[in-house]
Design brief:
The protein has 1968 residues and is α+β, with helices and mostly antiparallel strands. It is 44% helix and 13% strand. Strands 12, 13, 14, 16, 17, 19 and 20 form a seven-stranded antiparallel sheet that branches. 42% of the residues are buried.
């Protein structure tokens, strides 16, 4: 039985549970669960992460934790009772865990790893806290570490700032808002601004000395040196190094590590240096022999210097190498560091190039205790402490020091009878009063133990040595008296004995007889002669002598050697017990000399403060002792001394001695009668404050009044204790009189008297401390009255001194913080006066910071003591007094201009937050009664109106994002809670007072705008929060947006007929609210739009205004990222929702309303679909097709459906910017043209818009023209730029602006030059289908044609599309998808290449036009594209597949031509036709013949440097034919059965036969050319080809021609004249051929889809060379044809380019045979992984690819029986025109949609049914026929260098119309006539051999080139270098049989005529 749990309420899952049992709850390790019931080892409950899902789970899987239960019962809430820091850690780590994984996904590795370490560290600290074994201090330290790391992680992850109090999170409901603000502000400042520390420390670690000439021990001395004052500022750090330069005691870190402590901020400057002096311990000379002397001396070695400024940047310098300079002249050793600092180091040598001192330095910040905590390891291992010289900046009480610093400066000695100067060594001892040497009281420096004696270093042969060695003597005070220092001077001999001979000594006593110590400063000591140590053993013997030159009485003392010898030392005492001041000693011994008391008291002010604080207690005892004994005589003097001492403690240096004085007053002060004298003297001073001559002293007295009152109060307490409380009335009277004097003095108006004002300010600043003392003697009420009377006495004039006003406020602030304010009685007395002064200051906008601080404290106190009944009345008082002024103050400070200095701006910002928190605190404390009283207080409606407008405005300011920092979510939520509560109270007042006849639009409008701003706040959008954060917010506040939304709806309904005032103004704001993805809020707000439409319909009969406003606002809001798909569906439900509201429709006809409403909603919904797509696309990083397509869709929608010109223009420019970013310059130009077309060449002024300034329409259009021209230029679309150049030039010309006209003409000329000179790549075009519901609306279930990027092929394009749509599935076939694909919840992409059909056939058919020009028209202004799909119809013949091989040709017609404003456009219409197998065979042969002709021509004209392409093409055709290739066509179409079954194909059969015969003759001629150019190593292959060719001819039934016929006078572009088929052919030889090209062979459409249309002949040569590689050749020749693919059947034999006409086999083409289905699996392979075959060419081999492109078939997909296996790897492309009917071709030509090149005429065979048909040229009428016989000519040099077959033209690539070039230069009539003539007179003609002599002569003087003019065609002689000698009777090839087919094809297939279609967006430059 399930029993509700009592104590088992909360637990943590310790083992995962899958929940497989019935009602089981799935749990993961670490989940927290709330337990509801238990039963037999099972619990029932829920996981806190998903409280809606309840279930059962095993009890032993749960670790129970203590928790308290709130709201017991159905809605109980469990709160764990663990430490709040633990709770925060747990929830925070859970949140971080999710975000941490996202960091990995986003590749933010650095933060990922740092956060990982922090999380582990927090977990370790959490374990320590949970164990519970930590001490209180350690626990506090751990919590501090935890919160610091939590805050760091939250900041790094962009999470909220957590307010904390003593390391625990605070509940914002438990503290006042002002306190919450302060906590947030404190944490924010702590985060933003580093804490300024005044104490710094330098850590030094000595590592080694690197020097080549070591070998002696060294001493290294570190110290800090002030180069500005030329003095050391620290003690010395002294360490010893061994002979290797390493520390002697490495096991003792304190011997080689030191911490220089207590450096002030002023000492971290660049002129503070670390100086290092190095002393060697060894022989006198560094180069002396080892046995010269055994005595070791301290000798100078080197010095190094480093500025401390070098450490300020990084704080740490590991392994720093300091340069060590050696001193060459020892007499400068004492100042070597100064010279190095001054850059005078040129005189010193470095110890070596690689030598130096290796040290580690680190600068630490904070007090020494903090450093001990943070760097515990440093102090644990050991480190020596090096102090500053003297006291630190702050002297701490209790600090015990007695250090005497002695610097051995220099000496002056005589030679002493020597010829050279002495080597002097000084030895120092400390000798006590008994003559004994004190042991271990000499410190060489920190790091070394104390020593008994000290030896200076020795300077060689120097009688005036300078040492400057600093020593510290920490002598105890008890040994100080009577002790003296003795300095012994010895000469160090360099002889073998090396003895040190004493020759004199000096001494100096440490204390004088009168008790004073040795004065600080330099002392010149007398050098006494002494040569025996025995004389020094008795100190009393020499202590009688004078020790200093200043004490020397006479010169003839027998013990004195000479007064010329002197020795100087400098001493400095740092002692807290001893003094050098005689006046101080006299004062302390005042009883011994009573007559000196007055003098001593007057001299006290001259004594140094450090001397006074050292003897503070003794001094105070002395003063009060004197006061007790003779108050009448010395009372005022003692009072003045006491004031001096008290004020001395105000100094920051002695500030820490205040507790010492406090302790003295509490524990040691015994002046029970002192209070009378102190009150009397103080009153005397207060009464005389206005006297000018005593102003300064009186101010000093007022500064000290706090401690004077402390002495008065303590004295009175002592008196009361002693006397039993006598004289109380007398004391009260004295105090009252004193305060009366104070009040009188305070009430005086300053009237410009600065001194009086200053005195008043000084009194007020210390007054709070005075009444705090009085509270010890008087009760609260009495003191409160005293304080009130004192404050009331202050002058309230507005012209009072500002500084005095500030001090007055500070005084009030201290009152509010004091104990006096805590009592309700005293608070009731003080609060009115406090509020009065605050009101005055706020009204004048003065001292706002202080006012805000006081108010904050008031509200903090109210919140803490909220249970007191008196507080409700106090809130009443505060509301009446301050609410209005608070609102005005916030309005004032937020409306101030921000142009002031940054400091002032930040000050205002801080104040604003303080006042806002005060206002929110007040509003939160107000109850219903307070609100009612507030509203009742307003006497008139205008007053209420002003108040409501004011508070609504303030609330709008509070809701601004910049009001609080972005991570202050806690503060924002609290503020919102207060605001919505207040608004709910005030909305009642709005309804009651401002409806119907009292309606006020402004106040209602302000209310609605406030509500909208409230709902739209970022901090309330719970959808953006993590689940845990969202849960916390909902538990504490609920969804405040819904509450406010309901209030809006309620208020809107109350408006009634007044709603029309807010239409359409509120449409935008309400629409913004509905875009929030909160279902409840939307359901509340959407019906308001019904109302708006209804009321607008009533008022104006339509809702155009609503529609216009709706659309405008929708665009701006969607662009900001608001709204979602659900919103569109919800909005779409407005019309159905009218059902529940029939009352809205009573006054209008339902049908009318419904139709217009449906229309509006449909429009808005369509717009939203586009806007949502646009918004989603714009979230992407890089510019891609989706962004551009989305913008185009939206742009067109605004233009066509909404006709909103401004929005249309805005999106034009957005699209333009996207194109520029993606470097689509041509598209950018077309886009800008849309705007250009809207403008005219007029002087109409235009306003400033977007980035355009205010200008005339003409100027803007001119600017646009120039920008568009620039973009066309960058996009290499120069022809379009030329048209615009002409247009703008016309304008310049009409205005006679010849300067700009000249520039424009030059620009136009430059564009012409670029057309001729620069290369242009012809892009590929791809058809893309987007299927499935998951695509954006503008793509969904549509097909597009896309213009590819430069060099982009199908594979690259497909990969790009899959990258743009990573979730899309690539379809592996070209068939149209079915409905299931359309409706699928997925994304399907169908991609294949298509061939463009150029519009402008005239330019392409014209002869003599360079390919540079034609290439533009092939790929620009393209509306139509096509692709072919081979298929078998009927039964497939296994032996001959050509019988049933049909081709489905699909033509796609776009909505706009490419290129345009986008790289892709939607397909508007599809046209599908089918080509019969016979037509297919004709087209295949036709294109193969053309390819052969072109290759032969290129070979003849030496455009091919490598003959391999021709070789492979010949081999492919001949080999295939021999193996049954062409014969398959004969078997299929020439059999009797086919002819009888298809009588309508007779002419086509004839045509096919002629093409086969023509191919044989072309092959024969090609072999002849091949024989001439074939290299020697390929001769066997050529011979094989010749043999196979004869086999081929015999298989076709072609006989050898017996004799040569007479050459035709007409010449052909492919290098071979045509002859009639019934003529006897002549033997063909290349020498006998004559090349007469009508136009460049390279100008024909190309088969290569991989190279540019403008590749030079050089590139052709490179390509040809590449094809000679064995790898690619082998690969081609080793491909074996399958039985079903013996011909070049589209997908079977194509390279990847087969997809230009149909999807390649790699994409699952249906053309694949069964045996090749494995290609589908290979489609995912990389190019190198795919099988290399005809189906899968190796795309990674450019050589192979380009080679194929040379020889690729131009008609794919087809099956060509003339191709053998090797050639089936050739790239091929589809034919560019259909063979279905001549009628269609003609119709296409007429409508300008299909640009077919001219079809050359062919003579007919006698057996042909069309034998007598007259030849008609299909050339356009624009071609003028040329008369007469034409001489041999060649194209212009440009033609030779254009790319023709080598080009990769996707427009006509391999798309050959039959007979694309005329084979004669003459007119069609001449051609037909000639051919007829030959046919009639065909007789055998003997073979004519051509001699070689004429050829040699011709080659000597080649004629110059000449080029065609566009309008005048004239023959161009062929250069001898490129020509082939013309024989008298050249062999000929038969002409193409072309004329029969078009006429007969007309009847073979019926096609619907194509009607030219207008563009949807006509443009003025549409002809570009």
């Amino acid at each position: 039985m399930w029993i509700p749990t009592e104590h088992e309420k909360y637990g943590v899952v310790i083992a995962g549970f899958r929940g497989t049992v019935p009602h089981g709850l799935s749990l993961e390790i670490g989940d927290t669960v709330q337990i509801l019931e238990k039963c037999d080892g099972w619990y029932r409950g829920f996981a806190l992460k998903n409280p809606n899902l309840k279930g059962i789970f095993p009890s032993n899987y749960i670790h129970l934790k203590n928790a308290c239960v709130k709201n017991k019962g159905q809605f109980e809430m469990v709160v764990p009772t663990e430490d709040s820091v633990i709770t925060e850690m747990t929830s925070t780590l859970r949140d971080w865990g999710t975000m941490w994984k996202q960091l990995y996904v986003r590749n933010e590795g650095d933060l990922f790893h740092r956060l990982w370490h922090i999380m582990n560290e927090i977990l370790d600290l959490r374990r320590q806290v949970l164990v519970g074994h930590l001490t209180h201090d350690r626990m506090k330290d751990v919590k501090r570490h935890i919160t610091a790391r939590l805050d760091w992680g939250n900041e790094q992850l962009g999470l909220d700032l957590v307010p904390r109090k003593e390391y625990a999170m605070v509940d914002p409901e438990e503290i006042s808002i002002t306190e919450l603000y302060r906590l947030m502000e404190h944490r924010h400042r702590k985060k933003d601004t580093p804490v300024q520390v005044s104490s710094h420390h330098l850590f030094v670690q000595m590592k080694s000395l690197m020097c080549s000439n070591l070998g002696e021990e060294l001493e290294v001395i570190f110290s800090l040196f002030d180069s500005k004052e030329n003095r050391p500022i620290s003690e010395r750090f002294f360490l010893k190094l061994n002979r290797n330069g390493l520390p002697k005691c490495p096991e003792k870190p304190e011997r080689h590590c030191s911490l220089f402590v207590d450096l002030g901020t002023s000492e971290l400057r660049k002129d503070i240096y670390i100086t290092v002096h190095i002393i060697r311990i060894g022989r006198m000379g560094a180069g002396e022999k080892k046995n010269a002397c055994n005595v070791l001396y301290r000798r100078p070695f080197g010095c190094a210097v480093l500025s401390i400024a070098d450490l300020l940047a990084g704080d740490t310098k590991d392994d720093l190498i300091l340069k060590v300079y050696m001193c060459n002249t020892e007499n400068e050793w004492y100042q070597i560091h100064e010279n190095i600092i001054k850059k005078l180091n040129a005189r010193y040598n470095l110890t070596g190039s690689n030598a130096g001192l290796a040290v580690s330095l680190q600068l630490l910040h904070g007090d020494i205790e903090q450093i001990r905590r943070e760097y515990t390891s440093m102090f644990t291992h050991g480190v020596s402490i090096t102090r500053k010289l003297g006291f630190s900046n702050i002297i701490m009480p209790g600090e015990m020091r007695n250090d005497l610093y002695v610097t051995i400066e220099r000496g002056e000695f005589e030679k002493g009878g020597k010829s050279v100067a002495r080597n002097v060594e000084v030895t120092m001892f400390i000798v006590d009063s008994t003559g004994q040497i004190l042991k271990d009281f000499i410190s060489f420096g920190s790091g070394e133990p104390l020593a008994t004696e000290f030896h200076t270093f020795v300077l060689y042969h120097n009688n005036s040595p300078r040492w400057a060695e600093l020593l510290k003597l920490p002598i105890p005070v008890d040994k100080f008296r009577g002790a003296h220092l003795r300095f012994e001077f010895r000469h160090c001999s360099t002889k073998e004995k090396g003895e040190k001979k004493l020759f004199g000594f000096s001494f100096v006593p440490l204390m004088q007889e009168n008790g004073r110590t040795l004065p600080d400063g330099t002392h010149e000591l007398i050098v006494h002669k002494c040569e025996e140590n025995i004389r020094l053993q008795d100190a009393s013997h020499y202590l009688k002598f004078p020790f200093s030159k200043g004490h020397l009485l006479g010169n003839n003392h027998p013990a004195i050697k000479t007064t010329k010898e002197s020795f100087w030392i400098t001493s400095f005492l740092c002692s807290t017990k001893l003094t050098q001041n005689g006046d101080m000693l006299d004062l302390l011994k005042w009883r011994a000399h009573p007559e000196k008391i007055a003098g001593c008291l007057s001299k006290l002010k001259e004594i140094d403060g450090s001397e006074i604080v050292k003897f503070l207690q003794d001094t105070l005892d002395t003063l009060f002792g004197i006061l007790d004994e003779n108050s009448q005589k010395y009372g005022s003097h003692v009072f003045d001394c006491l004031v001096h001492i008290i004020n001395l403690l105000q100094d920051s240096k002695f500030h820490h001695f205040k507790p010492v004085m406090d302790t003295y007053i509490e524990s040691h002060f015994a002046g029970a009668l002192a209070y009378r004298d102190l009150i009397k003297v103080l009153k005397w001073h207060v009464d005389r404050i206005t006297e000018v001559e005593r102003q300064t002293h009186n101010q000093e007295v007022l500064k000290a009044q706090e401690y004077i009152f402390k002495y008065i109060v303590q004295s009175r307490k002592l008196f009361s204790l002693a006397t039993g409380g006598q004289n109380v009335e007398e004391f009260c009277c004295c105090i009252q009189e004193l305060l009366m004097s104070v009040r009188f003095f305070l009430s005086q108006e300053t009237k410009g008297d600065a001194a009086l004002s200053q005195a008043q300010a000084i009194f007020l600043s210390s007054f709070p401390a005075v009444y705090s003392e009085l509270l010890k003697l008087f009760d609260m009420r009495e003191v409160a009255n005293l304080v009130r009377d004192t404050l009331v006495s202050l002058p309230t004039t507005t012209n009072a001194d500002e500084s005095l006003q500030g001090v007055k406020l500070q005084c009030i602030g201290k009152i509010v913080e004091s104990q006096l304010y805590t009592s309700p009685e005293s608070r009731y007395i003080l609060l009115p006066i406090v509020l009065h002064h605050l009101h005055v200051h706020l009204q004048e906008q003065k001292d706002l910071i202080m006012c805000a601080s006081i108010l904050s404290n008031i509200f903090c106190f109210i919140k803490k003591n909220g249970s007191e009944k008196s507080l409700l009345e106090e809130i009443d008082i505060i509301v009446n007094s301050l609410l209005d002024i608070l609102l005005k103050t916030i309005l004032e400070i937020t409306s101030r201009p921000q142009s002031a200095g940054s400091a002032m701006r930040f000050q205002f910002q801080d104040v604003t937050g303080e006042f806002v928190s005060c206002l929110l605190s007040l509003l939160r404390q107000m109850t219903d009664r307070h609100y009612q009283q507030l509203l009742d207080r307003f006497k008139t409606r205008d007053e209420l109106r002003d108040f409501l407008l004011q508070i609504f405005t303030v609330f709008r300011i509070l809701l601004q994002p910049e009001m609080f920092p972005k991570d202050w979510t806690v503060m924002r939520l609290v503020a919102n809670n207060v605001i919505i509560t207040t608004v709910l109270y005030l909305s009642d007042a709005l309804r009651k007072n401002f409806l119907n006849e009292s309606f006020d639009y402004k106040i209602w409008d302000s209310y609605f705008y406030l509500a909208v701003i409230f709902i739209n706040q970022l901090c309330l959008q719970l959808e953006m929060f993590t689940s845990s954060k969202k849960k916390k917010v909902l538990e504490k506040y609920g969804d405040m947006r819904v509450t406010m939304g309901c209030e809006i709806f309620s208020m809107w309904q109350n408006l009634g007929e007044l709603k029309v005032h807010f239409i359409p103004a509120l449409i935008g704001p309400f629409l913004e609210v509905t875009l929030i993805p909160q279902p409840d809020l939307r359901n509340v707000m959407i019906p308001i739009f019904h109302d708006m439409m209804d009321w607008e319909q009533r008022r104006s009969g339509n809702f155009k205004q609503v529609e216009a406003k709706l659309i405008d606002k929708l665009d701006s809001l969607m662009s900001e990222g608001k709204g979602d798909e659900t919103y569109r569906e919800l909005f779409n439900s407005i019309i159905p929702l009218f059902g529940p509201y029939p009352s809205l429709l009573k006054k209008i006809e339902r049908e009318t309303w419904r139709e217009s409403g449906v229309s509006l909603i449909a429009t808005v919904t369509r717009l939203m679909e586009r806007l949502l797509d646009y918004r989603d696309c714009m979230k992407m990083g890089d510019v891609d097709g989706k962004k551009i397509g989305c913008t185009v869709s939206l742009l067109n929608f605004y233009k066509t459906e909404l006709n909103k010109e401004e929005m249309y223009i805005r999106y034009i420019h957005k699209l333009h910017d996207l194109h520029l970013k993606a470097q689509n310059f041509t598209e950018a130009a077309y886009t800008l043209l849309l705007y250009d077309e809207l403008l005219e060449w007029s002087d109409r002024p235009l306003r400033e818009f977007l980035s355009y300034p205010m200008q005339t329409e003409w100027q803007r259009k001119e600017y646009l023209h120039l920008t568009i021209i620039q973009n066309f230029d960058r996009g290499k679309c120069w022809e379009n730029g030329i048209i615009l150049c002409r247009k703008i030039a016309e304008q310049y010309e009409s205005y006679y602006d010849y300067r700009n006209l000249s520039k424009m003409r030059m620009m136009e000329a430059s564009l012409y030059d670029k057309i001729m000179d620069q290369q242009r790549l012809e892009p590929e075009f791809f058809r893309v289908g987007f299927y499935g519901k998951k695509f954006p609306f503008f793509l969904r279930n549509k097909e597009f044609v896309c213009r590819g990027h430069d060099y982009e092929r199908l594979e690259a394009f497909q990969q790009r599309m899959l990258n743009e749509f990573p979730h899309a599935i690539a379809m592996q076939h070209a068939n149209q998808p079915d409905e299931t694909i359309f409706q699928a919840e997925a994304q399907y992409l169908q991609i294949y290449a298509v061939t463009p059909i150029p519009e402008n056939q005239e330019v392409l058919q014209r002869e003599g036009i360079p390919d540079n020009i034609k290439s533009f028209y092939k790929v620009n202004h393209i509306w139509r594209f096509r692709y072919d799909r081979p298929f078998h119809k009927g039964v497939k013949d296994k032996d001959n597949e050509f019988k049933s091989l049909w081709v489905e040709r699909t033509t796609l017609i776009l909505v706009q031509s490419l290129p345009g404003i986008s790289r892709w456009f939607e397909v508007e219409k599809r046209e599908v036709v089918e080509m019969s197998p016979l037509e297919n065979a004709i087209e295949v042969l036709e294109n193969k013949n053309l390819q052969l002709r072109t290759l032969i021509s290129q070979c003849q004209t030496r455009q091919m440097q490598n003959i391999n392409p021709l070789t492979m093409c010949l081999n492919g055709v001949i080999d295939a034919a021999v193996n049954g290739g062409v014969s398959r066509y004969q078997e299929a179409f020439f059999v009797k059965e086919y002819i009888l079954n298809h009588p309508e194909d007779g002419e086509k059969i004839t045509c096919l036969r002629e093409l086969m015969l023509e191919q044989a003759q072309i092959l024969e001629f090609g072999l002849a050319v091949h024989e001439k150019f074939v290299p020697q190593d390929m001769r066997p292959l050529h011979k094989k080809l010749v043999d196979q060719f004869f086999v081929m001819k015999s298989s076709l039934g072609i006989q050898e021609y017996a004799a040569c016929i007479q050459a035709s006078p007409v010449h052909f572009p492919n290098g071979s004249p045509r002859v009639p088929r019934n003529s006897v052919p002549v033997s063909m030889s290349p020498e006998g051929a004559r090349v007469i090209p009508r136009r460049s062979p390279l100008s024909y459409p190309a088969v290569n889809r991989y190279s540019s249309s403008s590749l030079s002949s050089q590139a052709s040569a490179e390509v040809s060379n590449i094809t000679g590689q064995s790898e690619s050749s082998d690969e081609v020749f080793n491909m074996q044809p399958s039985p079903s693919t013996s011909s070049l059947s589209s997908a079977h034999s194509a390279s990847p380019n087969v997809t230009s006409s149909a999807p390649s086999s790699a994409r699952g083409s249906p053309l694949l045979s069964d045996k090749l289905k494995h290609s589908r699996e290979n489609s995912c392979l990389s190019p190198r992984e795919r099988p290399c075959s005809a189906i899968y060419p190796n795309s990674s081999e450019p050589s192979q690819r380009i080679m194929f492109n040379h020889i690729g078939d131009g008609a794919l997909p087809r099956s060509d029986p003339n191709l053998s296996g090797p050639e089936k790897a050739v790239n091929s492309t589809p034919s560019s025109w259909s063979l279905d009917s001549g009628k269609e071709a003609r119709n296409m030509s007429e409508c300008g949609k299909l640009m077919s090149p001219p079809v050359p005429p062919r003579p007919m065979q006698t057996a042909s049914p069309a034998r007598h048909v007259t030849s008609v040229s299909p050339s356009p009428a624009g071609r003028s026929p040329m008369k007469g016989t034409v001489q041999s000519f060649i194209p212009s040099p440009v033609d030779y260098h254009s790319s023709g077959l080598i080009s990769n033209s996707p427009v006509l690539s391999g798309s050959y119309s039959s007979g694309i070039s005329s084979l004669s230069r003459c007119s069609t009539s001449e051609t037909s006539g000639f051919e007829t003539q030959i046919s009639d007179h065909s007789v055998p003609i003997p073979n004519c051999n051509v001699s070689e002599e004429p050829m040699r002569k011709e080659s000597k003087t080649p004629p110059p080139y000449s080029v065609y003019e566009r309008t005048l065609r004239r023959p161009v002689p062929l250069p001898h270098s490129l020509s082939i000698p013309i024989p008298s009777d050249p062999p000929a090839l038969p002409p193409k049989p072309m004329l029969v087919r078009p006429n007969n094809l007309e009847n073979s297939s019926k096609r619907t005529e194509q009607v030219p279609r207008p563009r949807p967006l006509p443009r003025k430059v549409s002809q570009l």
